[in-house]
Amino acid sequence: MPTTAPAFADATASDSALRRFLHGLPGVDTVGLEARAASLGTRSIKTTAKAYAIDLAISMIDLTTLEGADTPGKVRALAAKAVHPDPTDRTTPRTAAVCVYPDMAATAAAALVGSGVKVASVATAFPAGRAALDVKLADVRDAVAAGADEIDMVIDRGAFLSGRYLKVYEEIVAVKAECGSARLKVIFETGELSTYDNIRRASWLGMLAGADFIKTSTGKVGTNATPANTLLMLEAVRDFREQTGVQIGVKPAGGIRTTKDAIKFLVLVNETVGEDWLDNHWFRFGASSLLNDLLMQRQKLSTGRYSGPDYVTVD
């Protein structure tokens, strides 16, 4: 079976081997993990660093709309906002991507031609992942054919939680093969995995199977990205690169709504994995409302005052 980490080929040779490997990972110190995440979240930064952090955060956003009421017009408007987040200030960075359902990927791709903003598409029966593998793969093929540069897939949490790790691994490998040149983000839905040990295991499972990114959440459940679960995933990609030489991205998604939140996550990145990940090729925010707050704070830094309520668009 193909994997990004040949050094771990034996670990994925069978269901029992994979189980032994994943359950042989060091247990997570819950108190220590949450204390470190909380401590890093209290760091303050100076005005010049804040301006840099705001622009960096804007450039890392996967501007997202994943609603049943999405229309081509809404997707085109979101694409326009991704390219020019603040039409009054063309120095504002573009977002990293626009994230949509597969049936809207072609609309997004047409609106973003030549902009440098990527088209990301959720797939594999998002958000529940409850579908047969051939249906999931068809979902991926449709999105890629429509112009998606990136695929955000969900794992089968039922299989994972029942210990059928090889099934989850093989599905990720199969989806990766369908992606072609598109990058693959693997969503764990950390709020449904129950324990930090499971999040660590899922992180390694995703990386072994060929994920380009590991992603916390769909944004569709009660518990999404948190500093603690993101810190744990950052530690996993750091350790994976140390052992394999392969760098994997991280994407916290859901619940990150303010500039203060975003800066806390950037501090986590800087202090845990360093500058190599402080780039939108390796770190993303899955968000919709976050961009508006970043734009408001950006204007406050440049003018000394907040804009009126009509300064940013309502998404």
From TrEMBL:
The keyword Cell inner membrane does not apply. Its EC number is 4.1.2.4. Gene3D superfamilies: Aldolase class I (3.20.20.70). Signal peptide: none annotated. Pathway: Carbohydrate degradation; 2-deoxy-D-ribose 1-phosphate degradation; D-glyceraldehyde 3-phosphate and acetaldehyde from 2-deoxy-alpha-D-ribose 1-phosphate: step 2/2. It is an enzyme of class 4 (lyase). Keywords: Lyase, Schiff base. Pfam families: DeoC. CDD domains: DeoC. One of its GO terms (molecular function) is deoxyribose-phosphate aldolase activity. It catalyses: 2-deoxy-D-ribose 5-phosphate = D-glyceraldehyde 3-phosphate + acetaldehyde. Belongs to the DeoC/FbaB aldolase family. DeoC type 2 subfamily. This is Deoxyribose-phosphate aldolase. It comes from Streptomyces mutomycini.
